[in-house]
Specification:
1002 residues, mainly beta, ten-stranded antiparallel β-sheet, eight-stranded parallel β-sheet, 12 helices, 61 strands, 35% strand
Length: 1002
């Protein structure tokens, strides 16, 4: 239901005064607020704080100018019928009042700036609180009321006295509560409007979730307290010294006991030798106290010494070039929306650190301030982004865009001021971002000018103005790998905006390059992460990249059957909506890591481990920017056919940052005669080397794996060729089609040609960039078979068929041959494209079988433990793995192709109750195959809108691939790289099917 569907949206009001009925009301004007205190750095104001979180009284009205009948002492009556309890911080639409709405670019209201519809859901909030008896009530300036975030516009009253109004949802607002505060019981009332003029600046590809969603606190301000300060703590990498100066709004002395500094005049620079610099890799913080000369309580600060600069076209911190291995992070919780707690923030950062992520772009607004405290503590480079995006004006061809309208300048500049002032003292914040996808305009110039003057110590970022006049980075979104390579070599074409402006173009070419968004992590994917990372690492100009994005924005919902699922745009009846486009993160909504996060961790490993079995040498590459490798231990394991046979620890030097070292293989594996042959048992032998933490770190325990590599050091022992004397399993075939129907009593049916896959989000793509559209046009989702012949030979069954789509001439000719092979049944499949296939790709190529669902215990030797596709399999390693069929499914919020295991040598599917089942082995020259086991069919998977739509059936679906198309990131970005695309060609598969009984073959 849209907001305009509310039956009372245009009803007349009765029963009391209203806020206003004027079209120029505070929620629709072009002022950022009224009655607010000047923005400042966030820290305790020298006194106590009273947390006002908890249960408030709440009433939802359909329009903005509802009666102001809740301002009387005591507020609404406990039994008032239109009022109910509400948790603050929180969003009222997630607590049973109204509808969550998701859009990507479209505004959920008419583009009619600065106006918003009459139907403007408005939440009235009220709570009483008791002031501590010894809290001073001394009038102006004695107490501050602080809101960390309210969406989207609000007015606040204390004891019936209006304190002010504010817009800017993800930014703090402070009011002087002193004159209205009284001893004992106090009444706090807040009116929050879902839509406001500020909403035009907050079209940020996320759920529109109104409410008081961040902390509300009352802050005591003792006389003479420090109200604001600006910490300047630089680091001289040549001298190894730090320089400290602190601007304070009152005279103050600073002490840093850890550096032997006591009561130094804060505004007087002091150079400190022997300082340990702050970095994301080694986040050294010094505790400081800033004491006002008035004698008021000191302010506690955490100081990190570091210097950010762009030098010779490279982004540097502390004199060292830095490569950002980042993610874009929206704030999201499946139950609480953006009302997330500190524990969730810490969980996010621990997951990032454990997956080798070193940078966050706070898309597309400043985060909860506690998140930046944790970034300082744990170590994370931060691009802090202003709460600004006007993307919806793209649907008006940017006509009326606030970024280019001077009337909007006060509102827009206010947002940048509040961002910078709040977060200026965080060493983790190394880049200011002016906002996102707001086209271009004079107001962006005003933001850049103000920010450069206020804080020249940090570079600026803005991507969408392609002159880059406001930015210190050349920045793009979703550039393909080959374009990144050209940019790294300074060989890219000039953008149209600077092609005829030589000075602007020369400046742009001198800027470091950032991919502020890439690798759209929507559904199964993204692909090509390793290729992106190696390209970024190979060019000094490249400062790094940020995956879009960190977490799926699914909201937990209960279905009619009582089961829960994660909802996306449209699931609440909301319209217009952005559908599944909010499901595009490296984490599932419940913060379970996706396979994409595992792939990203592998791609951005800070340590390269090159294994060369021919020479018996290991090349170690330290990809850290500032840290040596002394904190890591390198452990090795030798496995034959998946079974460990030896292990140990390598002696490694503490390789400095950005340097390399060469060490020998373990003694057991030194090259002998012949070179590269491993000592020990015969079989397929693999050496795995793992870099793990030697001791506990604040973000992970000792033994946590940071990087790994694997190589084969002994060749496989091939299965002896069949002699014809073994015990061949009994098999039954359909006389008409030649399909297998029974193998030694196992109801095994197949093979059918397997070309289709349930489309991934990246297959669906965006607009014309959709391989799915081409596949459907080519009829690959509707191939029908025609059996040409079933021929019984003395020792073989030969079946020929042609598979083709209705109405089209191209097809695939299939010849599959059954033959006894000792205790196995050998299946050979030859697949040949037939007809006009030029320019086409295929989803997959292989065969599929079905068997009774009870054979759902799977064991395989190949890559694992997670799923792997041609351009995402870097996180999978060769080994022996086991799981049941349910655990092999990846529960993407939007069901799609998933669960494939790559490079499988053999797999077994057994009934855990009896031990009976099936073993499949790669045979002949095939070597390996792709394995997918599902409790439902591809057709069922494709038809499902949510995972709870999928119900296991009586048959298990076994897919054996010779190849699959890559994943790419075409949901918002490039298709798979050319060598990861599946092009028509002749294929051959050779498989051995062996029935299993308890203890071995049947």
């Amino acid at each position: 239901m849209t907001d305009t569907d509310h039956p009372a949206a245009t009803a007349p009001h009765h029963g009391g005064p209203t806020a206003t009925t004027a079209s120029g009301a505070y929620w629709a004007d072009l002022t950022p607020g009224s009655g607010r205190l000047a923005p400042r750095a966030r820290f305790p104001l020298g006194g106590r704080r009273l947390d006002l979180a908890g249960t408030w009284s709440f009433r939802l009205s359909p329009v903005a100018d509802a009666p102001l009948d809740f301002l009387a002492p005591g507020g609404p009556a406990d039994d008032a019928p239109s009022w109910s309890p509400l948790t603050v911080p929180g969003h009222w639409v997630l607590q049973g009042h109204g509808t969550p709405r998701y859009t990507n670019t479209a505004y959920p209201f008419p583009i009619d700036p600065p106006h918003v519809p009459d139907a403007n859901p408005t939440g009235d909030h009220h709570r009483t609180f008791d002031l501590p008896d010894d809290w001073p009530v001394t009038g102006t300036g004695s107490t501050v009321l602080r809101f960390e975030g309210v969406d989207s516009c609000f007015k606040v009253w204390l004891n019936g006295v209006e304190l002010g109004t504010s817009k800017g949802s993800r930014l703090p607002s402070e009011f002087d509560a002193g004159p209205a505060l009284r001893r004992g019981r106090n009444d706090l009332a807040v009116r929050v409007h879902r839509w406001s003029s500020g909403s035009y600046l907050e079209d940020q590809d996320m759920w529109w979730l109104p409410g008081i969603f961040r902390d509300v606190t009352l802050l005591e301000v003792p006389p003479g307290s420090i109200g604001d300060c600006f910490v300047h703590a630089s680091y001289d990498h040549e001298r190894g010294s730090g320089t400290l100066r602190i601007e304070s709004d009152v005279p103050a002395l600073v002490s840093l006991p850890g550096l032997g500094i006591h009561d130094h005049p804060a505004d007087r620079p002091i150079t400190l030798p022997g300082v340990e610099p702050w970095s994301a890799e080694l986040p050294r913080l010094y505790d400081a106290a800033l004491a006002p000369l008035s004698g008021a309580a000191p302010v506690r600060l955490r100081v990190g010494f570091r210097t950010v600069a762009i030098h010779d076209g490279r982004f540097t911190v502390n004199g060292v070039p830095v490569l950002l291995r980042g993610v874009n992070r929206h704030e999201h919780d499946p139950d609480r929306g953006r009302a997330i707690g500190r524990d969730t923030m810490r969980e996010d950062l621990l997951l990032m650190k454990r997956h080798n992520i070193n940078a966050v772009r706070t898309a597309h607004y400043p985060p909860h301030p506690a998140f930046l405290d944790l970034c300082d503590e744990l170590g994370m480079w931060v691009m802090d982004e202003c709460d600004l995006e006007t993307h919806g004006f793209i649907h008006a061809d940017w006509e009326g865009n606030p970024a280019d309208d001077p009337r909007w300048r006060p509102m827009i500049l206010d947002r940048m001021r509040r961002t910078v002032e709040r977060d200026k003292n965080h060493p983790s914040v190394v880049i200011w971002s002016l906002g996102n996808e707001s086209h271009h305009g004079t107001n962006l110039q005003a933001l850049a000018d103000w920010t450069r003057e206020r804080d020249p110590s940090r570079p600026l970022h803005y991507e969408r103005d392609r002159t880059y006049r406001h930015s210190d980075f050349y920045s793009l979104m979703y550039a393909p790998v080959n374009e990144v390579d050209r940019i790294g070599r300074h060989e890219e074409e000039a953008p149209p905006e600077t092609a005829d402006a030589p000075e602007a173009e020369a400046r742009r070419r001198r800027l470091p390059f950032l991919l502020c968004e890439f690798a759209h992590a929507m559904g199964n994917g993204p692909g090509s992460l390793a290729e992106y990372q190696r390209t970024l690492e190979s060019h000094p100009r490249c400062a790094g990249a940020f995956v879009w994005e960190w977490i799926d924005h699914g909201l937990r919902r209960t279905g009619e059957d009582g089961g829960t699922y994660f909802a996306y745009g449209g699931d609440f009846g909301d319209s217009p909506h952005g559908g599944t486009f909010c499901i595009d993160g490296l984490l599932f909504p419940d913060r379970t890591p996706s396979p994409g996060l595992a792939a990203y961790k592998k791609a951005i490993e800070p340590v390269g481990i090159g294994l060369d079995p021919a020479t018996g040498r290991i090349a170690l590459s330290n990809r850290y920017d500032a840290r040596d490798l002394a904190h890591l231990v390198f452990r090795w394991t030798l496995e034959t056919d998946g079974t460990p046979v030896a292990e140990g620890e390598l002696k490694t030097p503490p390789v400095p940052a950005r340097r390399q070292a060469d060490i020998p293989f373990p003694e057991l594996l030194r090259p002998s005669d012949p070179p590269g042959r491993a000592a020990g048992p015969a079989g397929e032998t693999w050496l795995t080397v793992r870099a793990v933490l030697a001791a506990d770190e604040p973000w992970a325990p000792a033994g946590h794996e940071v990087a790994w590599a694997q190589t084969r050091v002994g060749g496989p022992v091939r299965r002896p060729a069949a002699t014809g004397t073994g015990r061949t399993p009994a098999a039954a075939f359909d006389e008409r089609t030649g399909l297998l129907t029974d193998l030694a009593g196992l109801e095994l049916e197949g093979p059918c040609l397997d070309v289709w896959r349930a489309p991934t989000d990246n297959d669906r793509g965006m607009g014309e960039n959709s391989v799915l559209r081409l596949w459907r046009k080519a009829g690959l989702d509707r191939l029908v078979p025609r059996t040409e012949s079933v021929e019984r030979l003395p020792h073989e069954l030969l079946v020929r068929s042609r598979w083709a789509p209705d109405g089209l001439p191209h097809g695939l000719r299939v010849c599959h041959t059954w033959a006894p092979d000792g205790e196995a049944l050998r299946l050979s499949v030859e697949i040949t494209p037939d007809g006009p296939w030029a320019g086409l790709t295929l989803p997959r190529m292989g065969v599929r079988f079905t068997l009774p669902a009870r054979h759902d215990r799977v064991r395989w030797y190949g890559k694992g433990p997670g799923e792997a596709y041609p351009d995402s399999e870097q996180a999978a390693r060769v080994g022996l793995f086991a799981a049941d069929a349910a655990a092999l499914q990846t529960p993407y919020v939007v069901p799609q192709e998933n669960g494939r295991r790559a490079d499988v040598r053999w797999a077994e599917l057994t009934d855990p109750a009896t031990g009976r089942g099936l073993r499949v082995e790669a045979a002949g020259g095939m070597g390996v195959f792709g394995l997918t086991v599902r409790p439902w069919s591809v057709e069922q998977l494709e038809a499902a809108a949510h995972p709870h739509d999928l119900m296991p059936g009586e048959r298990l679906h076994l897919h054996l691939d010779v190849a699959q198309h890559g994943l790419g990131s075409a949901s918002c970005g490039p298709a798979p790289l050319g060598w990861h695309q599946l092009r028509p060609q002749p294929w051959r598969m050779d498989l051995l099917l062996i029935p299993l009984a308890p203890g071995g073959p049947a």
